[in-house]
Amino acid sequence: xxxxxxxxxxxxxxxxxxxxxxxxxxxxxxxxxxxxxxxxxxxxxxxxxxxxxxxxxxxxxxxxxxxxxxxxxxxxxxxxxxxxxxxxxxxxxxxxxxxxxxxxxxxxxxxxxxxxxxxxxxxxxxxxxxxxxxxxxxxxxxxxxxxxxxxxxxxxxxxxxxxxxxxxxxxxxxxxxxxxx
Length: 181
Known about the structure:
With 181 residues, this protein is mainly beta. The protein is built from no helices and 15 strands.
């Protein structure tokens, strides 16, 4: 982390991690979502008040691919991830100290990114090699869009909101041609 003068490194968690995503709140609190490389469990690490705290969100299921962490207006993290075996995209939210999953899309894609708009809309984007998927939610109802016939998709994607409610979805590697919007 950068303290304004120098960069320093910290051990965030005691497990080897993959699929890392980071989000920083305006308060300085930092959230890192990841998958434990050995157990494939889902984790979150939080930097607050000068120290790191790490916890397992779900060890019942196995996860692969990147995670994506996005913050709500009140700086509550939402973690988007692909569940191996049941082939679904899930979003996790912490309610009263308990991480609660919600299924976004079945079947889902494994290149996952997520975003939360200023109005509280949730968006989850994923790819499965030849198809890109975008899911939008307000509350517990999801609307799904599939983009087929795109050819080979071999790179990551990125997702954010332009203003309050317009999602912007970027796909990398469309037929090996770079970034596509």
